Amino acid sequence: MNLYSYKNNFNLADFIVLLFFFLAPLSITFFEKKNLAILIFFSISFIILNIKNIYKIKIEKIAFTFILSYLIYITISSIGMIFNFNKLNYSYLANFFSRLLTITIGITFLYIITYWSERNSNKLKVIPKVSFYICFVFLLLAFYQIIAFKYHLPFFETRSFIYGSNAALNSSLGFRITSIAREPNYYSPLLFESLIIAWIVLKRKSFLIFSILTIIIMYKTYSTGVYLHAALLLAILFLTKKTSSLFKLTLTIVFLFLISIIIYVGLDSTSLEYFSDKLRNELSGDSTRSYVIITIITGFLGCHFINQLFGNGLNSLDFYNILSTNNVKNIDFSISNNLVIDFLWDGGIIGVLVFSFGLFYIGKLLFNSFRKNKYFYASFLLFSSFLITSLYRSEYASLHFFWTIANIVILYKLGKENKNEH
After folding, report:
1. Is residue 160 within 8 Å of 177, Cβ to Cβ?
2. Which domain holds residue 340?
3. Is the model's pTM score more than 0.85?
4. Domain for residue 422, yes or no?
5. What three-state secondary structure class fits 153?
């Protein structure tokens, strides 16, 4: 079914669901607050329209597990927050309710999408198409960004400046591609998600062209997170894709040969030098990212035993200097850029274990089914990409986070509805 086949049965509920899949990725941009306000309005509208039946539903296993583990995690982190309340002030409450609002909308939409999908199984194939369209808009804007910066044309303000290496290298490379995302690491997950979704939506030739264009943008992000994400996802693809051993061996030889040529010839040696310099700083602990993670872990280990178990409360890293006994002054960060570290600080050991158990169960469901058809495999790859993203991004309260989970749910459901599409 395509978007134009809705003429006779398209309704407001369909529009609201499709709107979520189109707008949710904008949470990685500076339009986040306006985007959230729009989706709050439409989520309330959907609930009002379906108030009589919205609770009468058997929730999909993946969505149910994710929502339940998330709600338990929030409850656990709230215990830690209550224990810390004498140290905090009313500014923290603003942080807490801001984070809670976004999470509530994300969970609400995940429930709405599950409810809608159970009643509209014949319309499910439209969802990956809508998700692809917004990814394609980001890609077009990424190429326009290159043109705009080269010819001094107007473009959205983003963190496209180069940093993380020595001043000479930073200056020579010029800028990083962000599209309309805040910075490359915000855009990175969407690049990989777009490839997986495009594989489902596009025909082979179109997918090949889209892949080449996406890989060009990946390279131009100059992000170690993007490059390592690509390496890990390729490894998963290589290990799980059902192909002959000879094909895998040939692909490995070709890949190693190309890497050798790039290194030998020194293609764009400035870029290679920047990448190796930045990676060395990350691995040695000299980068800002490494420093932040080490500082948070040290502070967490110095917390009261209750806080080590239950965390310090949602969105409490802004108050690290108050809550930590590290005596480290003038620390200015609100996230660690690592999902596990943020979950550990906010929800403690118990919170991390509960959420990890939920993810493990979801992963098990997807792993046991990924060989059955292309939709199951795409949902498995999308989940794998989600886990890789968690290593260098921490956006568990963004709508893009819930958008990714929602796409996993829809693709998994499509796998069950279309068992013979390989």
Report:
1. yes
2. 3-417
3. yes
4. no
5. coil
